[in-house]
Specification:
alpha/beta, Rossmann fold, 2 domains, 10 helices, 10 strands, globular, UspA, Rossmann-like_a/b/a_fold, Universal_stress_UspA
Length: 301
Amino acid sequence: MNAPAERVFAGPLVVGVDGSVPSLRAVDWAADEAALRAVPLRVVYACLWERYEGAALAQDIGRTTALPLAQDVVGVAAQRARDRHPGLEVSADVVLEEPEYALVREARHASALVVGTRGRSGIAEMLLGSVSLAVAAHADCPVIVLRGSHDNQATPPVHGRVVVGVGEDAKESAAVRFAAEEARRRGVPLEAVRAWRRPARETTDHPLLVGDAARLHEERAAEELEAALQDVPEDIEVHRRTVEGPARRVPVGASHRADLLVVGATRREGHFGLQLGRVAHTVLHHSACPVAVVPHPAHDA
């Protein structure tokens, strides 16, 4: 069966908010990103409990309806974005639905979606919240999860580079293309990282491995990296790195010197489980900088 065509991401930039400090940091970052892209910003507050518990809470604080509580959340967030970028077109909406479902639906019409981390038990920067994980695993557009210390900004650059993790399949170009565009918008170099390892049980008496076995694996990784970068525009400065080590850990190491780490995630039609590979899952939990998860279709034979 032929592989489905990759989607062209268009529409507004969407940011999910919930009134927490991490979500306000996400608003700042999303406002910068929307201004970079010259697209509108859409602020969305999705919460099912407003429908069932909001009336009781509103009564406790002397209000007749719960809706103003939710409207306050999006109102403050939207005004924060306008204050940060006065010329930015900002809209806001309240959705009475589970956040993960509402945001995944919003992603169908978005150029990208931004969410903050909100782990439980007061360790938000150590644990990825379930909403962020679910959205990154199912959204149809790129999802940017604001992990690590990003100084509440997409611009100006702090480290001065965008990093993309390149996998074994050079056909999976969506993440590379997204990363190249982000590097161009920021005016910074693109660093492409490809991890490689020699199989633990490999012997050196194989005719293809006579001599320097490790060198052959590294050269193969370099060739795959070059193939993945063949369509990157020439005006973008590209740094290539092949690193020996686990594919799940190498991008995490690179995140310490990046403003944004980009990884791909395969979307399989009709599959309802968490559609994140091991690399994407690991970086979402351990990256030192914001992570962009870029979906691409499965390449079926």
